[in-house]
Structure formats: structure tokens, C-alpha cells
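Reviewer 2 asked us to include a model.

Predict the structure of this chain.
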Amino acid sequence: MAMIFCHGCGKEIHESATSCPHCGAPQSKTSSGFGKKQSTAFLLSFFLGGLGAHRFYLGSIGLGFLYLFTFGLLGIGALIDMFNLAFMRADAFAAKYNNGGIGQPIGIWAKVMVMIYPALFVFAIGKSSYQGYKQGQTNEYAELAAATPTQISPAGELAAMFKLMSDNTDLQRENKLKEIKGKIVEWTLPVYEVTQIGGAYKIQTKSGDTVGTFIYITANNEQDKAVIEGLTTGSRISFKGVINDVSMRHLKIKPAILFQTETHKKLTTGMDQQVPSQTPITAQITISTVGTIHTGTDGQGSLDSDTKSYSFDMGSDIGNKIFATCKWGDTCEIQAVVDGENNILSIRSVKKVAP
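Predicted model (C-alpha cells):
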């Protein structure tokens, strides 16, 4: 003989009992050997609720087909049913689905499963969103690396306009920002400060002969990380990025990536004093010319040929390389990359012609 549960109090009694010895309720209906099980309905709702399997099992054929064609009312109906079945009292389930025949109450395991389900759902959505974000970030960097930089020089007009003692007005700077915002640049600039923000870095470059910048950059690998964290004040960083905004008279470059990182790794660790050459773009040309080396009081030097004057920062790596071969007043032959405003961006070779 089997045991069943009382229709009135839910306590376990013998199946042959005509009334409950605990509460006295008559036992005219039982669920022994037939009827619908609450645990089965719950499991169907948990695993196949979007297909309406639990609705078909409980005899709600119309709702079953509705769930089948709407994926459980877009999942909302199936989710509500799952919670209801997990927390429904045995007598309520019996009255609704078993003509009052009370079966075994659903165990605590169902409630645990219900509580885990939302956590798994949130985890899956969060993981998918994070993977989408990382993929989008990777695509953004790949597009940036493949993009052609514009003809904007960090020296000359741009440096003069955004320096602290500039003669230009705020309105002129606002108009200039509108003109250059969203443009991609590829520059080599002197570092002033490096800070870490989460997993990314904010690099401030010096203003003066070139425009100051705040470069927001993410290390794509351990080599990039070593380069960035090895930078010191006065180091030079080569980067490619998008002009995003202005802050404190500094251009915000975001997003940005390093380029020629191997050369810069050597440069920052003192293994090579060769200045990395930039990838030639329309605004940059390679020259080979002879001229006289001149110095100025503002930290700027120049090589004056018969037709043009080419400027460089005396305290930079470019200046150091020139003065390693030549001195003031020497006539020298140089091969270099210059921008459209005749600022020397990198040196290929230096040769003294005459004193």
C-alpha cells in the first residue's frame, strides 16, 4: 500500500484512509497512480517553457499553442508560469489541475532552480554584451590602424592657437575644433605625464612647439603595455588617433593606438636613439637638402637652405641627432621627413658638408 497526502492539511496518510487522522477531512479523491505532478509541470516549464510544453501537459491546449508560436509570450509568460509552479502550494495545484487530488508537494530544489535561472540569464546577457563590446573595440582599433591620416600638423598654426598665451580667441579655437574634430592624425610628440584609468592610459604631451594633447590609449598587447609604462617625461610617443575634443587647451585624442612600437620600446629603454620615422602621408615629404644650422632663443633650431628654412626642436631627439654631427653655423646635408609647414618630423641621415 502507498501513502498519499491529505486533501485538507497536506499531511501524509495511507491511501486507503477514508478520512484524515490528523484533520478529519474526508478523502474521496486521491492522486495515487494518476493525475498531474507539480514537479513534472515545473521541469517542463523550466526546460521547455518557451514551447508551451508545461501548458500542454496541464491540459491548457490553447495556451500551449499560443506559447508555441510566441515562444512563451516572448519568454515572459513562460517565466511567470515557472515561478508560479515553483512556489504554488500543493493543495492549490491540486484544486486547479487535479480535481482536488493532492499529490506530493514540490521540493525546495524547484525554488533553488528558479532563483538560479535569473542569475544565469543575467550572466549570459552580460557575457554576450561584454564580448560584443570587446569585438566592437577590436574592430574600431583595426579600422583606425587601416585609416589614412589627415594633413594636420601638431606644430605651427595649431600649436600657436592652443598654447596658453595664444593671441587667438576662444571663438577662433572653437571654430578650429569644429574643423578638425573627428580627423585622424598620426603624430610623434614629447610626453609630459602618464596616468592609468582602469585598463587604459591617459598620456599628456607637452605643449609649446607642438600642440598639447591628452591621448586616451589602450594597450593591445604586452609590448604596447611595456612601451606605455616605460615612458618618462621627455620621451616621445608615436600614435595614431582621432581628434575628439579640447580640454585645458589640449586636444583630446580618443581612441588612439601606438604605431612603430618596437622602435619606441628601444627608444624608451635607451637601446636605440634613432627617432622613428612616421608613415608618409600627403602632408609629409622626404627631403634631401643642404643648409646652415641656426639656433634660436625659443628652443627652436633651423636648417636654412637657399630656398627654405626647416625647423626642429633643439631639445628633441631630432635636435640631438643633428647636433651630434653638426653645430651652430655648420653647413650640413640632411635627409629628413618634413610636414607641410617645413617642420622636421624625423631624420634619415645627417652629414656635415663644411664648417
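Residues 108-146 form the longest helix (39 residues). The chain is about 35% helix and 25% strand. We have added this to the supplementary material.
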